[in-house]
Amino acid sequence: MSHRKQGYTSEISQRQWRRLKWLLPKRKGAGRPVELEMRAVVNAIFYLLVTGCQWRNLPREYPNPQSVYYHYRKWCLEGTWQRINRAMVFLERRRAGRFPRPSAAIVDSQSVKVSDMGGVSGYDGNKRIKGRKRHILVDTLGNLLDVVVSAANLSDRQGVKALLTKVERQIAVRLLKIWADKSYQGDLEVWLHEHCNIALEIVSAHEGQTGFAVQPRRWVVERAFAWLGKYRRLSKDYERDTLSSEGLIYAASIRTLLNRLVS
User: Fold this and answer.
1) Where are the beta strands (DSSP E) in 127-191?
2) Closest CA relative to residue 80, chosen from 250, 234, 240, 245
3) Which of 4, 8, 63, 109 has its CA 20 to 30 A from that of 174?
4) pLDDT of 30-55, one tens digit each?
């Protein structure tokens, strides 16, 4: 029997940490030096994400939960999670032999229930869920390009407009085509053409189709939701505001990409 200290399965390896640490923000200016080990902070965030525990119930091996949450929230406010995810997507696309910025993408949304923490929420009449809606844009490999979390009553068409307003301009400029399901039908096609010069293609079931069938292109974004579903913290929205909700989705994407880039 080995008595060596065993790490949690949610923790990243030394090679993965070397790939990630250069993307974390560097401390600027004078002031008290940072005493926390940033790798331990990141591992604590991934532990919470994988296991679904509460911040105050993080294991004692990790730094103080308030300190971990401070850095997590700070990176949400500064856009650090979004920036790191974007860099990871570029690296993964290069590894796959693709151009870093995609020319085509798939969009979809997912409605989830919220906890009693309060904050923005609404009722999705189609899914009959009271909570929030996750609007995601993925490339043709299923990598997360960007995410917007809103009240569940925001329509899918409004959600994709918010996505393309938020996504990095260099990515949006190169996008030429977006695939979506029939819930995006309407004036969105005209808006995308006039404001973004992007063509919209609606993917729908074939005539006469009965039962379940995999739909072209759309299975990619459904698989992306399945990847996010492996993280228990994302089974429901437990965050007070949508910015923190988006941060956890970026973090889940980053950890998934790290596992692919550094096995």
Assistant:
1) 129-139, 144-151, 177-180
2) 250
3) 109
4) 555 556 899 999 999 999 999 999 99
